[in-house]
Design a protein that fits this description.
single chain, alpha+beta, Viral Envelope Glycoprotein, domain 2, four-stranded antiparallel sheet, 3 helices, 4 strands, 29% helix, globular
Length: 82
């Protein structure tokens, strides 16, 4: 197991592979040109940003603070460390 900070330092292809194979899908949102999927991986949340073609991942990032979870808090209940 690793921390969110360690995860963010992994190569993007490895990050995406870990999330898709070991993460638990929770929710999605749309922002601009992207569909953003939220996953729970080990003990932190991760976003996968898909371009609209839904075949390309543009960004993978572990969310490391409550502010980064705010876009989700109005639509789903998340466990947030304060």
């Amino acid at each position: 197991m690793f921390s969110a900070e360690e995860f963010n330092n992994l190569p993007p292809l490895l990050q995406a592979d870990l999330v898709l194979n070991e993460g638990h899908y929770l929710h999605h949102r749309i922002k601009g040109w992207c569909k953003i999927d939220l996953y729970w991986l080990h003990d932190f949340y991760v976003e996968l940003w898909f371009f609209y073609d839904l075949k390309s991942i543009g960004l993978v990032r572990a969310l490391t603070n409550q502010k980064s979870l705010e876009p989700y808090l109005e639509t789903i209940h998340l466990k947030v460390k304060t």
